[in-house]
Fold each of these.
Amino acid sequence: MLAIFNNSVASGPEELRIPGDRSPNYPKKDSSDLLSSFFNGFPQAISLKVGGMGDMAYTHEKQDLLRPR
């Protein structure tokens, strides 16, 4: 599952930020780039846009259907 929220809804924890993430060698990805990366790894995922507040994506791919979480 991937959830991307606008900063007005929730701020990400500092621990999730990569040291040097402001470096020009590692440009910050926007939400559409993050969703594209997720769909490249999980092509059968579904997504939901929550107005201007964020995006969510989910997949059952690579999960044991007989033993759901």
Note: The mean pLDDT is 81.
Amino acid sequence: MLSQVVSIVDKFIRDAQLNAIWYNKVIEWIPYNKFKNIKEIAKGGFGSVYYAKWIDGYIERWDIKKNNGIETMTIHLKILNSFYSIRIYGITKDPETDKYIMVLEYMPDGNLRDYLKNHFDNINWND
């Protein structure tokens, strides 16, 4: 069962990388130990929300024609701020709980529900 889940996650990440047209659409596997200062900031019906500092940062460049692997990508700490979308950076796994975690852009103005409520009409779904 566990190997099936790992296989599904691996395939999801691989497919997302192969189909990424822009570098900001790449989803990557992020080792849990690449996060520091992890703090729970909210808890809801679907789970908990944590804030953490990502040591290496996200993928800044992605050459789809060369199909560069993660090892050849430039990693950068700069965070792009997009007012109209919440960026999905990748997936990690908590080694203590064995649970998979989606790594999303931090939204300082509230949770996803509040963001969608306040900005739904301005969201560009094609980005």
Note: The mean pLDDT is 69.
Amino acid sequence: MLDAANPQPELHPHVRSSRTLNPLLTKIHFPGVLPVGISRNHRHSSPFFFLYKPHPNSGPICGRNSGRHHHPPPHIFAFSGQLRPPLENPSTGFCFSHQELSSHTNLSAKTHEKFPSNSECCYSIRRKVILKLVCGVVLAIKASNTEQNCKLGVCLDEIILVALVHPGLRNWHAKTGTGATSSKGGSKGKSKDPPFRLLNREDRKTYDFLVSNKRQVKSTKFLHRESFASLGVLDGVQALFNNIGWGQFLHNRAATYVEPTLEFLTTFNPEEEAQTVTFQILGEKRSLPHRVVNALMGAPVDNLYYQQDPWPGNFNEHYFWQQITNEPQYSSSSSKASSIIHPCLRLAHRVLTCTIFARSEVGQISKAELFFLWCMTRENGPRPDFASFFFTKCYNLTTMDKGDIFIGGLITLIASRPPLQLHLSTLPFEKASGPSSLDGNALRRMQLIRDSVVGPMWILDNQPYLILPHEYIESFEPTDPDQWIIPSDYPPPVDDEDDQFQPAQQFAEP
């Protein structure tokens, strides 16, 4: 405990003086608590942290279930990020409601008021941050310009830590001069400081490039199984992904968060020889083997085709393109995905472009994307390595000077699943804009299907082609080339068998 004769405690090595880091902190005095300092070495990357100790003249700190908490030694800062469900009687617990936060008092007017020992009080710091205190324990924080509450159940005998983590606080920092510099102020052309602390200063250039030209982080669209099933295409798309060992990948769903996405892309560093990747997330450096990344994504880990490997000798892009489009030649600069006739093949391609290839403009089909489709239609064909293709895409995002960023949902999956198991959804990060499901509405916006009086119509070259669901589509066999081209009037009359589609030019099978 603190000595009344010497109220200033010895700072922990990870904690620097509040007077040198943030002069504003020295002006904030909570009755019953004593400011100690600000930590920037905590595992949660936040604008800053306030550390408080009980004032030597204050009574014992109490709180709900405080006797069952593990209490760290004095002068060792700690943080509990476990969220607690709302309580009917907040006076006995740690959570609060939006209505309670609305009725708060101003900090400056309450600086010297004696803190009640068994009641609650809310304070507002410069009208931006609201702190909830019960019996001297900081319970929660909230940025007043947002609807989202950050409920932190903190109950420690010796140390109270307030983590100001909401992105809305960055504007407050810029205005008060205690944090990031606004791009409107300062030197011309200089971007805002990142909303996370960079362990490597060289990463700042990468961050500035990522946010240049008003690039935005937008939601990753994952396959919506119910919508695909209602169109009769789910089984066919699933069969295509099963052929490369990616069957479980189609079950992935995750939200996209702006700050963790930018932090990962800014700091990730793939180590090709070691088959590992290092990156920073929530302010801490992490490292994962490629095999682990593949496994948590539902992709195979053995007998893989890597992105840097040469194309297989039996992969002829022109011949395969002719088989699935009835067009004579493939061109990476002009061939369009809309030429793919079979709904299952084209939708499998769209799933790829919305996830691992993560691009907004999907008019053209790249050779790598065409190769994925070729692998999906082979028996015992190559199985693409998720990690090498994914990290190549991440690297390309840090070198491209335009185009929004759609890969954040996959980053959320990496962060939230074992071994990291970071609960990003419990932290008040900004969610990316845009839909997160490749559902019926998304397919309509992409002009892949169109409603009609007889049901959803499959669109080919901007014209209705087939009614979905369709019996032929539901019996799709991915490895049967005879099923890759579907005449629009299928099934055709027997007398017209000779009039079915034939390739304009034959390429020899390699």
Note: The radius of gyration is 28 Å.
Amino acid sequence: MTLSKSPEAAKCYREWNTFLKQTISKQKKKKRNHWRTFLAKTQGNLTFKAFAYTQSQASGAIASLLSQ
């Protein structure tokens, strides 16, 4: 796809960019609301198990290989 620097191309880009941002924002809002509803319905230890999935599993370090 070749982009020209015409005013029409700039307008099209802005419209597409706005649409994309709105779509992503709607999806994030749906996900957040669904997660909050799920957490509101949980009972007992399930809340703590669910909370564990919200945390990043990456430690930032590379695990060393152990030879046996």
Note: The mean pLDDT is 81.
